[in-house]
Design goal:
heterodimer, A: about 550 residues, alpha+beta, 21 helices, about 60% helix, about 10% strand, B: about 90 residues, mainly alpha, elongated
């Protein structure tokens, strides 16, 4: 027997159930997705941001020969960490003025491995002396694992959010019968319709990117999310090693022989890699058991001239310097994964492509943001008493303010902290992160205490002010003010300063528009049965006729 | 009273769909990723193929669960596909 309810559900149709799915899948983790999207967007300039956050480290006007740099830093690590089982260094490139390296330290406990990391000056080979900061890594790590929780939990949370995103995107596409027409429709100043049109335009224009970035995001951590095939297929460590070799140029160091033999010339090995891939297209140098007769060195290909993260590397006998093997291909599925991975990270990009990534990703952020705001805009019109909305509505409204406007404030405050926190502060890098989250929490408090519209306007202005003054702060606290970086062609510093002003302008415009129209406080969202104030009657009547005429 | 039972029924149906989407969808995706081992390619490639495809399966399962007319149908669909894949997954693990 069919109940009324069944029939009602049946009558609602596919589009409506997809619309519901889109709304709720989008809302539930929407705030997290917005933060993931924005921090991810910024991470396309991770290396540049890291440079900006270490102003003591001079810009590399010319890239030194990577082969010489590799030898220099390998020697230095050999002195800093003699007897380490493994080290790895990433050579500097046009975006990165330091050599990032890490090495294994003795085990902290049974079954545990310790790592130490450092940055080296490519010119001197010595450890970089700069303020203690994680730089652009902070937003990058937040983007997929968050903070204040175990890394694995964070990554699962990011994965769940990404799945919600993927479902919201597909459901959103099905909801739209006229996706193409809608794209060319924009109704300004019409309250809910304008929000919907903005959301549509942002979503549809970037649709291929949004789907790609969400799916490839899941692919980057798929071994964590879907371990079942791997568990069923492989019973021995040797079999598992076969899979690992398809994914990465890193391998586990074998048991050292105990015969001490110094490393052969790393410079010479990198020269061979340069001959193969180009002078400035060598990525990392990885060493297993350096200083032992069993030493192995892998020199990997750089990110240029191919869109794949699949491992390509030359393997050398570390003691003799003899080339053992060239790994330049993996299986079809592994290559597919490598390409999807590379598409997500965008490391292959030249400057133009990188800016395109940044802008479309910013549109994705705005897509999530407009979606969140629309949830309140749609429901405000239906509230029984707009002056006193129910708890769920207020919660969404306030979380929107803190997670959209508040995040801009917190991220900018983090950069202020980089310039203002005392250099001698203990655990300074983590103090910067704590500052970021403290400010973010304060914006939530502010959003909860102030009337919604005032909270939006105040926070947007605060973000605009902090962004606009950051170049000034930079000029006051470093030797690299904007006029200097413009004059010397230091585009990393000039770029950050100018970007701050562009974003300040964006926040200023949003603040002005919100002050004038409100975020969904516009006239079309006023409930029809609301009694206008007596002095407002004429205007309301005129508006009503206008509405009818449309 | 009748309104109340209807309400309870529709809430129950919605919950059944949500569970089908979140857990049933994941289980089906996981099953597909294991069944991929039956593909006539090397094991590492099969594992990766299964992982790569699994999120598309998950998404499709969630859309199915909310697209069909009843929670019963949603679960039935997932179970039929799972039943078809189970022998494959069983044979390779």
């Amino acid at each position: 027997m069919k109940t009324d309810n069944d029939q009602r559900v049946a009558g609602r149709g596919l589009r409506q159930s997809m619309s519901g799915l889109h709304t709720w899948a989008g809302l539930l983790l929407g705030w997290l997705l917005y933060a993931m999207f924005l921090t991810g967007t910024v991470s396309y300039f991770k290396e540049e941001l890291s440079q900006w956050m270490r102003p003591e480290l001079p810009r590399l006007a010319q890239l030194p020969d990577p082969a010489v740099v590799a030898q220099r830093v390998a020697d230095e690590i050999g002195m800093l960490a003699p007897g380490t089982a493994q080290w790895s260094l990433r050579l500097p490139d046009t975006r990165n003025n330091a050599v990032n390296a890490f090495w294994r330290t003795s085990a902290r406990g049974p079954g545990q491995r310790g790592f130490e990391e450092a940055r080296f000056d490519p010119v001197t080979g010595h450890k970089v002396v700069s303020r203690d900061t994680l730089g652009g890594e902070v937003f990058y790590r937040f983007h997929f694992q968050f903070y204040y929780m175990p890394v694995v939990w964070g990554r699962w949370l990011a994965g769940i959010a990404a799945m919600f995103m993927l479902v919201a995107i597909v459901a959103g596409v099905i909801t739209h019968k006229k996706i193409f027409t809608d794209f060319f429709t924009f109704r300004w100043g019409r309250g809910q319709r304008s929000w919907l049109d903005a959301h549509n335009a942002l979503s549809v224009f970037g649709l291929p990117f949004h789907i790609m970035i969400t799916y490839t995001g899941l692919v980057t951590l798929m071994a964590l999310y879907m371990p079942w095939g791997e568990r069923a297929a492989f019973k021995t460590p040797a079999e598992r090693q076969q899979l690992a070799a398809e994914l990465s140029a890193f391998s586990q160091p074998g048991k050292p022989s105990g015969d001490k033999l110094p490393l052969a010339s790393v410079e010479e090995m990198v020269r061979q890699a340069q001959a193969r891939w180009g002078r400035d297209n060598v990525g990392r140098v990885n060493a297993n058991n350096p200083g032992d007769a069993t030493a192995r060195i892998a020199v990997t290909r750089g990110d240029d001239a191919r869109v794949s993260m699949s491992p390509q590397y030359m393997e050398f006998d570390g003691a003799t310097g003899k080339l053992l093997a060239v790994h330049d291909g993996v299986g079809a599925a592994a290559e597919t994964r490598g390409v999807l991975y590379a598409l997500h990270l965008g490391r292959f990009s030249d400057v133009t492509t990188r800016w395109l990534y940044f802008l479309v990703s910013l549109m994705g952020t705005a897509m999530v943001g407009t979606g969140l705001v629309m949830w309140t805009v749609k429901r405000r019109a239906k509230l029984a008493d707009p002056a006193r909305p129910h708890l769920g509505f207020r919660l969404v409204e306030r979380l929107n303010i803190a997670s959209i406007a508040g995040l801009s404030i917190a991220m900018t405050a983090f950069l202020w902290g980089n310039r203002l926190l005392p250099l001698t502060l203990e655990n300074r890098a983590y103090a910067e992160i704590d500052l970021f989250f403290t400010v973010w929490a304060l914006t939530l408090l502010h959003a909860l205490l102030r009337p919604a519209k005032a909270a939006w306007v105040e926070q947007l202005w605060a973000a605009a002010a902090l962004l606009a003054l950051l170049p000034v702060l930079n000029a006051l606290t470093t030797q690299r003010p904007l006029w200097h970086s413009l004059a010397t062609g230091d585009w990393v510093f000039a770029g950050v300063d100018l970007m701050c002003w562009a974003l300040a302008a964006l926040h200023g415009v949003l603040a002005l528009r919100t002050a004038r129209h409100g975020v969904g406080f516009g006239r079309t969202t006023r409930p029809r049965n609301a009694e206008p104030r007596s002095d407002d009657r004429g205007a309301a009547a005129a508006a009503a006729t206008g509405e009818a005429a449309r | 009273m009748i309104a109340l039972t209807h309400r309870a029924r529709s809430t129950g149906a919605l919950l059944a769909r949500i569970v089908a989407a979140l857990l049933g969808g994941y289980a089906l995706a996981a099953l597909v990723s294991v069944a991929a081992l039956a593909l006539p390619i090397s094991k590492p490639q099969a594992v990766l193929t299964g992982q790569l495809a699994s999120f598309a399966v998950y998404t499709a399962a969630v859309i199915w669960v909310f697209a069909v007319r009843s929670a019963w149908k949603a679960w039935a669909g997932l179970l039929i596909v799972a039943a078809a894949l189970a022998p494959l997954a069983w044979s390779v693990s």
